[in-house]
Amino acid sequence: MVINMKFFNVYYFCHLANESMGKFDYARTNAEFTERQFEVEPEDFPKVSVLREYCFWLIDRVFYEQANYIANSGEIADFNPIHWINQAILKYRGIDISLRNGFEANNDDYLESYNNYIEYLNEYEDGLFEDVLNDIATEVEYILFQNRDFLLRFNEQQAVAFEDNLRKRKYIPEWVKRAVLFRDKGCCVFCKRDLTGLYSILEDNEKHFDHIVPLNEGGLNDVCNIQLSCQDCNLAKSDTSKTSTLYQSAY
């Protein structure tokens, strides 16, 4: 799949995700996602990763919380959720919603205006709000997926929900292997040994696609919880949660 990167304030959401992940002050808030997400048994290696689901949830929540802040404070800040959403729709979909419906927010009850607007977008514009949220979430996921330190903290948080219901080891699909091989540039994330030459000749059981947070610690079978490792480093890591912040320079 090719992503048409529009970069609509995605770094703002990436910063929020990175700053909140694994920190005590945000533990209760992020736990809301984990508890809601895993009320049912999670799918093994879903194409819509748990990271994408988190990005969607985060953006939706941030928009709502900002609308609620404006409603309570009466202050319209630079971050105006309705304007941001309009701009995102124009950027991703080429539609100027403000011209189509002439909607104006009621500053006396901004939260009600916001909720009515979201309802309008989803009911009368064919789910446009959820569609554009997914556009933004896809970009945020793409950027956060490159950050293994974030992925470690993210997966450690998700693992809390499965400490007493461990996932079973499953065959890793080829699309997951390709995604991880591409992100890690064919090198062991720990020692940076180039594994590209070996990849084509090794048997499947000799290819070390490693869970960042191990299954026996509650880790998920999800593309965002897999990293590339050489045999020696993988065996040394054993069943511990670990990754590396070493990256190959682009030039």
Number of domains: 2
**Helix percent band:** 40-55%
Largest sheet, strands/sense/barrel: 2 strands, antiparallel
Order of helices and strands: HHHHHHHHHHEEH
How would you describe the shape? Answer: elongated
State the helix count.
Answer: 11
In whole angstroms, the N-to-C terminal distance is 26 Å
Report the sheet-strand fraction.
under 5%
Report what the structure shows.
This protein has about 250 residues and is mainly alpha-helical. It has helices spanning about 10-20, 25-35, 50-75, 80-95, 95-100, 110-125, 130-145, 150-160, 175-185, 195-200, 230-235, and strands at about 210, 225-230. The protein folds into 2 domains: about 1-145, no CATH class; about 165-250, His-Me finger endonuclease fold (3-Layer(aba) Sandwich). The chain has a two-stranded antiparallel sheet with strand order 1-2. Helix 1 crosses helix 7 (about 130-145). The longest helix is centred in the N-terminal third of the chain and has 24 residues, at about 50-75. It is elongated and about 65 Å long.
